[in-house]
Amino acid sequence: MSTPEEKTPPRQHLLPVILVGVLGLSILIALLIAGADEPAKSRGTEILDQIRTRRLSSWWSDEPVEAWYLIRNVNGNTEGWQLVTRQFEDGVFFGSIEVHRPKTIVYEQWEINDGATEGKYIGQGRIDGQPVKTVTTLSDGRVYVNSTAWPQKVSSAAPPNYVPEGLTSLVIYLAAVGAEPVICRSIIDSAAIIGSRVHFFTSRIEPEGPQSARVTMAGIDSVNLYQFDARGELKRRDSTDGTSFIRVSPEEVLRAFPNIRPITPLGPASDDGDETSDEDESEDAAYESPPRSE
Fold first, then answer.
1. What parts of the chain have a pLDDT lower than 70?
2. Residue 18 forms part of a structural domain
3. Is 33 contained in some domain?
4. Is residue 240 part of a domain?
5. pLDDT in the model for residue 293
6. Rounded to the nearest 5 degrees, what angle is found at the Cα of 85, between the Cα atoms of 79 and 86?
């Protein structure tokens, strides 16, 4: 009596099994990656808690700060300038960032209390030649965003590792001092609202020494290397796209751009009216929302 041959299951019957296996492996890898990021997220939260506990005045004095930077392109040619200011008044720090590059003008104002629990930010620029203003407010543990590019104001609970506007450089510096990777959340003007919700970008900070750190922002191609002086003030930022922001004296900026007209007022952030200068009225001006460099 002959023995019947064993039949091999058709390939189409094996496909679901293979797909389930691949899906399971993908989920496992995602969980492992997420788990590996948890310590870095916790360190981000710890840095923000440290700032709130010790207060900003532990790192920043009440003396006004005015930092000038020359912007150089990939060829080493000077193509623009940046002015960063900060001052302290009645328990609140006020600051601004002003960037001038070919076809690009960015103007940002921020304020935050000494305990880093209440703050406000105003960013102004242009998208496709149209003026856009973004107002971000931190209050009672929530972040409120109002943009002329979006029809309504939205809000969301602030993540525990959320970096309020104005504190980016300080947080990066503290991460560099801590010598371990840190993950934080922040907001970018050009994508502050997505799907009727506040959109928080994820940044990973990798220390490269006691006074420098490399910052990668999810969804942003460029990586930035921040270098600080002994006081924790930013002295240089280099991007992988070849752009460098180098701190210099005001005289060096004036030699390169003798006709500049800074529009930065030292004082509280105000969303009344248009703070931009006549230069912003150029139809060639484009909006840019670079990684924070205050």
1. 1-36, 126-129, 264-294
2. no
3. no
4. yes
5. 43
6. 160
Contacts (Cβ under 8 Å, ≥6 apart) of 291 = 168, 203, 215, 217, 220, 222, 224
Structural domain contains residue 70: yes
Burial 155-181 (b: 16+ CB within 10 A, else e): ebebbebbbbbbbbbbbbbbbbebeeb
Which residue in this structure is represented by tokens 């970008």?
201
- The residue behind tokens 């180098």 is 246
Tokens of 277: 């200068």
Q: Which helix (H) or strand (E) holds 49?
A: helix 11-54
Q: pTM here?
A: 0.79
Domain count, the chain: 1
What is the spatial distance between Cα 70 and Cα 252, in angstroms, rounded to a whole number?
8
pLDDT one-digit tens code per residue, 177-225? 999 999 999 998 888 998 889 999 999 999 998 899 999 998 888 899 9
Distance of CA 169 to the CA centre of its chain: 9
